[in-house]
């Protein structure tokens, strides 16, 4: 990762992995990805519109559409291959649309009641991403970010590190994932995304709450847009 920004890793991590992503994320998280996404959804308050940043293959997007069938839901992603897979996976939902956009340079000319994302924070610049979210958020809207975190407990850290050694070996059999399995733990260890995004959101007068999950290996940060005084 030397001389690379976290965002530079995205094409290396996801360039050839769209067709296997759903199975790999379910297997490598022991099914916890499903639980974490359900926890995101549990925090959303009856929105008329939702924006799913870096929607990937549409796992969270589909869950949102099922939970909020009357809501208009837009998923964006920087990868065309992932968007094609998302469209295929979400073909039964009439309230979802997908757009090719970079979350750091978001330009939709739309506002949403809720903006959420799973796994994007560690790759992005907090100031840029929060600024773009605010520009696309309705009054009293919600911003919800979810991503991995490096555990705090020493025993859990050892187990976590050992697990990624095993995943690195698994990369021999899944060559499209080998780079991600090798570099992802380094990125997670070095990332301070929870503090950075919390600080950036609070600087913009958001009320922020943080929920640690699964032995602190996963975090949901959710923020409420303050009540308008106008």
Question: Your description of this structure?
Answer:
With 230 residues, this protein is of the alpha/beta class. It is 41% helix and 21% strand. A seven-stranded mixed sheet has the order 3-2-1-4-5-7-6, sandwiched between helices. Helix 6 links the parallel strand 4 and strand 5 (137-148). The longest helix has 17 residues, at 154-170. The termini are far apart.
List keywords for this structure.
7-stranded mixed beta sheet, 230 residues
- How far do the termini sit from each other? 47 Å
* Alpha-carbon Rg, integer: 17 Å
Instruction: Please provide the count of β strands.
Output: 7
Could you spell the SSE succession in H and E letters? Answer: HHHEHEHEEHEHHHEE
Helical content band:
40-55%
Structural topology:
Elements: H1 10-14, H2 21-28, H3 32-42, E1 49-53, H4 59-67, E2 72-77, H5 80-89, E3 96-100, E4 112-118, H6 126-135, E5 137-148, H7 154-170, H8 178-190, H9 193-203, E6 207-213, E7 218-224
Parallel strand pairs: 1-2, 1-4, 2-3, 4-5
Antiparallel strand pairs: 5-7, 6-7
Helix pairs in contact: 7-8
Offer a concise description of the structure:
The protein is of the alpha/beta class.
């Amino acid at each position: 990762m030397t001389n690379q920004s976290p965002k530079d890793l995205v094409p290396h991590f996801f360039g050839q992995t769209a067709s296997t992503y759903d199975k790999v994320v379910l297997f490598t998280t022991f099914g916890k990805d499903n639980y974490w996404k359900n926890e995101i959804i549990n925090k959303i308050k009856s929105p008329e519109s939702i924006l799913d940043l870096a929607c990937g293959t549409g796992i969270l997007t589909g869950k949102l559409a099922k939970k909020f069938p009357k809501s208009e839901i837009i998923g964006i992603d920087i990868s065309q291959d992932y968007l094609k897979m998302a469209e295929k996976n979400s073909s039964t939902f009439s309230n979802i649309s997908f757009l090719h956009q970079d979350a750091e340079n978001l330009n939709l000319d739309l506002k949403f009641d809720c903006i959420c994302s799973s796994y994007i924070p560690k790759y992005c610049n907090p100031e840029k991403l929060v600024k773009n979210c605010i520009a696309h958020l309705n009054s009293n809207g919600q911003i919800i970010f979810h991503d991995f975190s490096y555990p705090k407990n020493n025993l859990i850290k050892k187990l976590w590190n050992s697990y990624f050694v095993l995943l690195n070996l698994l990369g021999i059999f899944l060559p499209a994932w080998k780079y991600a399995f090798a570099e992802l733990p380094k990125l997670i260890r070095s990332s301070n995304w929870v503090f950075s995004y919390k600080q950036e959101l609070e600087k913009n007068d958001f009320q922020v709450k943080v929920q640690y999950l699964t032995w602190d290996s996963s975090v949901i940060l959710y923020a409420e847009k303050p009540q308008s005084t106008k």
